[in-house]
Design goal:
Order of helices and strands of chain B: HEEHEEEEHHHHHHHH
Number of strands of chain A: 6
Number of strands of chain B: 6
Distance between the termini of chain A: 31 Å
Distance between the termini of chain B: 41 Å
Shape of chain B: elongated
Oligomer: heterodimer
Chain lengths: 384, 380
């Protein structure tokens, strides 16, 4: 059903959503012209006969939405040799093209990009489909908790843009995210409460330490590179010195670690709580001991989760460093790179996230062991 | 309590190694390529470390209005060929310009790396390159390992060893092969299998538990890989518009690196950790189940294994998604609806969705394999 829903959504987006039809009014000499963004399908691809050295393509496309629906146009698709700009077309590809309209007639057409949004919807559809397939009834809670998390993230971004302290806001938002997720996924107030407090405490400690490190290492916070968009430069051009970029980096580190920290403190809190329910005479020291034992079992694999998730993003970076080391013909050249801000930040991100994860174990164990003294073990046995 | 001296010894070892490494790193200097300069003179370069000894700030009134500041810095070189020499460096700070590394005010005791141009063993010019950061990173790494060992005890030591082995596999197997132009996909699958087996055998020992977890995780990752491959093809991901590839392309041009493959490989590696985690939870549960209730029916074991896995999904699903979102936080500040179609954003969404899908699939596969292995063992 989810897949059908996704297909319907995509079909609607394809033909009716006006977002796909962007209008720009520019002044060309004295004439005013319009630029529209239309979807089109490549019908035919030919090589440009005028230049043999270049690989320029002449493509014929069929516009599939908007006022010129059904019209075929052919134009040149320039191949410059720059991998960021080049788009090799094949027959059957679906693209966005920018159509310049003068007095109601098509004046020129330019390729913009391949259509990716449809497949993104399908991708999200497949994601939801697998959640429902595997989790059954409980999938609703998981999807709801993800949805709430995304809403809270949106709020966080809005607050940071407004100029609030990014670190404080992230910690407050992560408290809400944790409470909502735990409340939806688990039952029982004690474990929800102590898990959330453990998570937030560990994140606060990590944020303080990270902020100290970030300011000691003199990060500017804007020398970061994200793909073709140099995010730092763009940010700086948009927001100038309104935002505190160092704190945004710290906020990113905390938010990235949130999922993993939440996971581990949930496991510890619910296991200790469960023990108390099954075994009423559980004392404080016993609770701490078994809490640590459980935490230890989980640490081994959970640290991997965060490490690999981050390392995956940096694999291109690692290959880059490797190539540079080879190019310089100096075996120690890789050391040089760990002084660069953008690369140094990645290592701090990985390590501080993992330290947060480790700290969550003792903190949660102490809190939950203290908290279970006040409850008789009669509630929250539902389901088990 | 007999283990305690061992942990202290290991921690002490980590501390000593770190101190040695920090010492070593601060003594290092790098040769740079020789450049033929003015009038055919050969100018050589070296990057070394330096400490700032003295700074002198000065600015005219006009410069102050325009936010300029000039500095004359006396720095002492602390490594390499010109060790212990003092040099004078000129620095200009522009408060209106993009605040990159080199555009800042230096203070006494700041540690920096400097690029020294020299000819005939005489310093010609000196530039400041960077702030010294690598030793702090090293100290952080050792802090992480010490915490891991103190909190995790024997499991902490085993995890440390497993992590080091993973690092060795990535640095000495994956990276050299990929940078020589081997297929990133196949290389990654092989290294992921190696990483999975070494980690599980070290953490859980050579047992039915780890074998079923390994096969389950590999199964999940492969299925996720198929999905990612199909979608990367449909969505025309070139792989050159993602993290770091901006710099990569110029360096890797002659080496025949397959950028799309590298990019897809990175997605698979991201999935590895979480799939490992889920597979471990499920397979150790089924192991326990058969220890306490040896006669369990195969379907029953499969059902309760999946059930345990679903418990895990609830919180773990967030791990991957939040890790990626946290990393992209600066990007989120720049987000507009029109950028969804760009390769960078689309690939991040696909990474999150299919990374999680690979993890979801791991759970029933592991549960099934674990139940079959345990069941067969008892009935044959």
């Amino acid at each position: 059903m989810i897949i059908i829903l996704a297909i319907v959504l995509v079909q609607v987006a394809k033909h009716h959503v006006p977002l796909m039809e962007k209008r720009v009014i520019g002044i060309d000499g004295k004439k005013t012209y319009y630029k529209y963004k239309y979807r089109a399908k490549v019908v035919e691809v030919q090589k440009d006969p005028s230049d043999s050295s270049n690989q320029d393509q002449i493509i014929t496309v069929n516009i599939t939405n908007g006022t010129f629906k059904g019209r075929s146009v052919s134009f040149k698709n320039a191949i410059t040799g720059n991998p960021y700009l080049d788009k090799y077309m094949k027959k059957g590809d679906r693209i966005f093209c920018e159509v310049k309209v003068v007095k109601g007639k098509i004046s020129s057409v330019r390729t913009m990009d391949f259509v990716r949004t449809d497949y993104l919807f399908y991708g999200i559809g497949i994601f939801l489909f697998f959640i429902i397939l595997i989790c059954g009834k409980r999938s609703l809670q998981i999807i709801l908790s993800l949805f709430v998390s995304f809403c809270l993230l949106y709020l966080l971004v809005a607050l940071i843009k407004k100029g609030f302290n990014p670190i404080a806001m992230t910690i407050i938002i992560s408290l809400f995210v944790t409470l909502v997720t735990f409340k939806l996924v688990a039952k029982g107030n004690i474990k929800v409460f102590s898990g959330a407090v453990g998570t937030v405490l560990s994140l606060s400690i990590v944020s303080m330490v990270t902020y100290l490190i970030v300011s000691k290492m003199k990060y500017t916070g804007v020398d970061i590179e994200i793909g073709k968009i140099q995010a730092g430069l763009t940010l700086w051009q948009v927001y100038g010195s309104v935002l505190n970029y160092q704190k945004i980096i710290v906020a990113g580190i905390i938010f990235g670690a949130l999922g993993a920290v939440m996971d581990i403190s949930m496991v510890v809190a619910s296991a200790v709580n469960e023990l108390k329910i099954k075994y009423k005479e559980l004392s404080f020291s016993m609770a701490i001991k078994s809490g640590f034992a459980i935490g230890r079992d989980v640490i081994g694999t959970t640290t991997n989760t965060l490490l690999f998730a981050y390392a995956a993003h940096d694999i291109t970076l690692l290959v880059l460093i490797f190539l540079q080391t080879q190019a310089l013909n100096d075996n120690l050249a890789f050391l040089k790179f760990f002084n660069f801000e953008a690369i140094s930040i990645e290592s701090v991100r990985i390590i501080m996230g993992s330290i947060g994860l480790l700290l969550a174990v003792p903190l949660t164990v102490f809190i939950v062991s203290y908290a279970i003294r006040f409850h008789k073990g009669t509630q929250s046995t539902k389901g088990k | 309590m007999k283990g305690r001296p061992l942990y202290i010894a290991v921690c002490a070892f980590v501390v000593i190694t770190t101190i040695l490494m920090v010492f070593f790193v601060n003594r290092v200097s790098h040769k740079a390529r020789t450049v033929v300069g003015y009038q055919g003179r050969k100018i050589k370069g070296e990057s070394a470390r330096a400490v700032i000894k003295e700074t002198k700030d000065y600015q005219t009134k006009e410069e102050a209005e325009r936010g300029f500041m000039r500095q004359e810095i006396i720095a002492k070189i602390t490594s390499g060929k010109f060790e212990n020499q003092e040099v004078v460096i000129k620095n200009t700070f522009r408060s209106m310009a993009f605040p990159v590394e080199t555009n800042r005010i230096y203070r006494v005791k700041d540690r920096v790396t400097v690029f020294i141009q020299y000819s005939n063993n005489k310093i010609a010019r000196v530039f400041i390159e960077n702030t010294v950061r690598d030793d702090t990173s090293l100290i952080l790494v050792s802090m992480f390992f010490i915490l891991l060992i103190l909190i995790g005890k024997s499991m902490g030591i085993r995890t440390t060893i497993a992590l080091l082995i993973d690092l060795v596999i990535i640095i000495f197997f994956l990276l050299p092969l990929v940078s020589k132009g081997f297929s990133p996909f196949i290389t990654t699958i092989i290294s992921i299998s190696l990483i999975l087996s070494s980690t599980f055998f070290i953490i859980a020992g050579f047992s039915k538990k780890s074998i079923s977890a390994i096969t389950g995780a590999i199964g999940g990752i492969l299925l996720g890989a198929i999905l990612i491959y199909t979608f990367a093809d449909l969505m025309h991901f070139s792989g050159v518009q993602t993290y770091w590839s901006f710099y990569m392309f110029t360096l890797g041009e002659g080496t025949g690196i397959n950028f799309q493959g590298l990019f897809l490989a990175s997605m698979l590696i991201g999935m590895t950790g979480i799939a490992m985690d889920g597979a471990m939870d499920v397979s150790s549960f089924i192991n326990e189940l058969y220890t306490y209730k040896p006669g369990t029916n195969i379907m029953e074991a499969f059902a309760s294994g999946t059930n345990v896995g679903v418990d895990v999904i609830g919180t773990m699903c967030n791990t991957l998604i939040f890790a990626y979102l946290g990393k992209n936080l600066p990007l989120l500040l720049l987000f507009q609806p029109s950028v969804i179609n760009t390769e960078l954003v689309a690939s991040e969404v696909i990474r999150m969705c299919f990374g999680s899908v690979g993890f979801f699939i791991t759970i029933p596969i592991t549960s099934f394999i674990a139940s079959v292995i345990h069941y067969k063992k008892q009935h044959i």
